[in-house]
Known about the structure:
The chain is of the alpha/beta class. The protein contains 6 helices and 5 strands. α4 (89-100) links the parallel β3 and β4 (104-108). The longest helix has 22 residues, at 53-74.
Amino acid sequence: MLKIYLSGEIHTDWREQIIAGAADLEVQFFAPVTDHDASDDCGVAILGDEDSTFWHDHKGAKVNAIRTRKAIADADIVVVRFGDKYKQWNAAFDAGYAAALGKSLIILHGSDHAHALKEIDAAALAVAQDPAQVVQILRYVQTGQLPQG
């Protein structure tokens, strides 16, 4: 059973596409909390309010890091998606953390991000442009089968 952590952009259904496409594989997926408000507010909801937005965000980032660090450490493969609409600084951090741990890293982004992400792409074992390519990589890794077509 491959353990796969799906990190990055939360505004599209790329995770669901990969999970559905890999339904017949022996894989287990993990992800960060993708409810944006819950992710932002978890620190203050659990540990108490903050007057400053800096400390509000700081608490949330640390509580989320407990989940993220564990998931990346336990993963066999880390997939990091960089979306089109927002800059995902947290995704870049996750990619660097996974690379530092020696994790197999698949980066997912469109061609318009190739230059900005060249160092992250260089650390990856594969750079895909769409979720279907990620599924094909997972299928090949697990079964040795090439895409039909």
